[in-house]
Amino acid sequence: MPPKRKSKKTPEDEPAEKQVKVDEAGTSNGKGKTPKPKKEDSLESLPEGTDTSFPKEFNPDKVTEDGRKSSLKITSWNINGLRAWMKGDGLDYLKTYDPDILCVQETKCSKAKLPKESEVDGYHAYWSSAETEGYAGTGMYTKTKPVNVTYGIGQKKHDNEGRTITAEFDKFFLVTSYVPNSGKGLVRLNYRTKEWDVDFREYIKKLDAQKPVILCGDLNVAHTPADLKNPKTNKKTAGFTEAERVEFTNLLAEGYVDSFRELYPNARDCFSFWTYMMNSRAKNVGWRLDYFVLSQRLKVDLCDSIIQQSIMGSDHCPIMLSMAL
């Protein structure tokens, strides 16, 4: 597998590992006071003997509840720079795991500067890049040519950073997104929660009205205390503020499911991102920021949702969804 590499991140890219102060005007309660800890802000004690494991590799024997085998494998991976990822043999992932679709986020590469090696036999490739070179960006490799592909969510204020690609297939829409980080000091918290999250949710709902949606990507939120190693000390850190978690809850409430938690509600240490600092990956001090979110009516087609923690090549690991579609 590709070797682990070092990276310089901009402050907005990923959660800071130490607590920062929040502007109370940006919190969701709007009362100027830090909200009291809620019951769900503490990890619940599970009964002795509870299975807290989760799958880290694809299992072809996993089937739907009604016994149907997987016919579709989709991988999502924040690769933290396309060119560096490719130099680290990142594309070997396609040969080794043979996903039907690979969605990548944080490509940091304009379309004009895509390496020739980014063209892969057997896959159609689609790219959305930021106006600023070396920032954000998304990509998609797919064996089956989509019915249609669109870029962005149709709003100029959100679409200059190359954060979203939507591919329409016969039975579903696939949306891959690199959701904006609220940033160090939560400088983009209001934009993230009061503008992006609201508009993105409406975008997904419009798609879902036509056919079911599979949403994947680095959604830059640890939804529950079980989705990061140190929830108590990160309540005011980008990715785990109350406002961000509430907005993700609001998305699910519109008729969607977090595929991983649907199958593995008691999973622990199920992280997909680790900072390069403090030997965090070796210690498994991380965050679950990468998701496959499904329209409710696709839940019957769900076989498995996997976090491939052993695969290096980025500060995130890939996640994989298997469906009987």
Task: Describe the model.
Residues 1-13 and 16-37 have low confidence and may be disordered. The protein has six helices and twelve strands. α3 packs parallel to α4 (242-253). The strands form two sheets. It has a six-stranded mixed β-sheet with strand order 3-4-2-1-12-11. A six-stranded mixed β-sheet has the order 5-6-7-8-10-9. It has helices at residues 82-87, 92-97, 189-208, 242-253, 259-263, 280-283; strands at 72-78, 101-105, 124-128, 138-142, 148-151, 164-168, 173-178, 213-218, 256-258, 290-295, 302-307, 319-323. The protein is an alpha+beta fold.
What characteristics describe this protein?
325 residues; alpha+beta; six-stranded mixed sheet; 6 helices; globular
Shape: globular
Residue stretches low in confidence (pLDDT < 50, at least 5 long) are: 1-13, 16-37
Average residue pLDDT: 90
What portion of residues belong to β-strands?
15-25%
Query: What is the number of helical segments per DSSP (H or I, 4+ residues)?
Result: 6
**Beta strand count:** 12
- Strands across the major sheet, in which order? 3-4-2-1-12-11
| Share in helix | 10-25%
Rounded to an integer in angstroms, the radius of gyration calculated over CA atoms is 19 Å
Structural class: alpha+beta
Secondary-structure element order, as H and E?
EHHEEEEEEHEHEHHEEE
What's the short story on this structure?
The protein has 325 residues and is of the alpha+beta class.
Secondary structure blueprint with pairings:
Layout (H helix, E strand, L loop, with lengths): L71 E7 L3 H6 L4 H6 L3 E5 L18 E5 L9 E5 L5 E4 L12 E5 L4 E6 L10 H20 L4 E6 L23 H12 L2 E3 H5 L16 H4 L6 E6 L6 E6 L11 E5 L2
Parallel strand pairs: 1-2, 7-8
Antiparallel strand pairs: 1-12, 2-4, 3-4, 5-6, 6-7, 8-10, 9-10, 11-12
Helix pairs in contact: 3-4
